[in-house]
Amino acid sequence: MMKAIGNSRIVVLGEESHGDGATFLAKVRLIKFLHQKMGFDVLAWEAGLFNCQDMDTAVRNPEISIQKAMSRGIYPIWAASAQVQPLFEYARSAAHTSRPLEMIGFDHQFSGSGGPIIRWRDAMIAFIDKADPSILPQFLRSSLTDDSTIVFKAGTSPEDLRAIEAKWKALPAVLDNSRAKLEVVHGIRYARLMRRTADDAVISIEGLARFRESGGKFKSEDNNLRDRRMAENLIWLANERYKGRRIIVWAAAFHTLNDPSAIRLDADSDFSYHDVVTMGEVAHKSFGRRMYTICFTAANGLAGNPMGSQTVEFKTPEDGSLEDLWTNTGHQFSFLNLRILPATHWLRQPLAARLLQYSPIKTDWTRQVDAVVFTRDMFPSSTAPIAPTKAVSTF
Known about the structure:
With 395 residues, the protein is of the alpha/beta class. Helix 10 (170-177) runs antiparallel to helix 12 and helix 12 packs antiparallel against helix 13 (220-241). It has helices spanning 2-5, 21-37, 49-59, 66-71, 76-79, 85-94, 116-131, 138-147, 158-168, 170-177, 179-186, 188-213, 220-241, 253-256, 279-287, 322-329; strands spanning 10-15, 40-48, 102-107, 246-252, 291-303, 312-313, 333-337, 351-353, 361-363, 371-378. It contains 16 helices and 10 strands. The termini are close together. Strands 1, 2, 3, 4, 5, 6, 7 and 10 form an 8-stranded mixed beta sheet that branches. The protein folds into 2 domains: 2-113 and 226-390; 116-221, no CATH class. It is globular.
């Protein structure tokens, strides 16, 4: 695996679903390996930019429990997982060494538990007021204070959300006009992160308004709004905030695809990848071979997250699928480097595999990812620890 990753600056880890306990344990071990052996020292989550920065601060504070620290940043699907928790224990153990594992988010959405938008609002107002309270116009101060409490309420209409969005669109310009003063008081690094979160907040409200207008139905243009912004944030992290450092990305496999429009589903499918743009596609255009994408799959078992979602029992892999071929090798765990395959290799032909929500999709997977990790037996992500010796191999 070390040879396969090589000099890549960014390693992307894409999970099949958000309920994959064995995959989470495998990710944790792989992240430790990348940190200890390959010089990766930034972990970027598919979660809020501000909220994960806040979480990273909490992880470094031994007076805050690991569970509370996790819940400040990442979504509950991960924060409640006993299979993810060892990663945070590891990050805390490395926090005050010469090479800590720094965590950040790249999503524009607010994430975490206990009012993540409120924590951002309070931090933003404090950020401005410490430099000069007069920077923030009263109409905007009032809107941030009052409207942030209703943004995520079920009864808030798309029209009300767009009215809030119209007010908050003034925030980026307010920060730009006082950039020098804010950077003197807070330092360039923090000031530029907070400036970026102002745009994220506006995009989040726009995305939520679209979601409610559609009645919760998937629309590619709405998905693309999020994925493009996630890519922009990741590119900013790599080129500016963490320039020269090596970054690990934790995300759902869907968001990591390099060429989603190349996937063709059956004619009777109610979903199409035709107009879909993913974070991976946009980021890949920027980073090229400096980004190495690893996805995961499994043949048997169960998947389900600690939030009470329905447990999914895997169907027997279809004949000739990637999972079927792997099962027939007798291997319990395996790593397949797709990047190095010759142009005429048979694995570059359409092949059924269950990398996306365990739905068998037949496509040329070498156009989507650089490698696949196979775990024969999956078990659900849960609040109860699972013995690592039963779940993952050594990388």
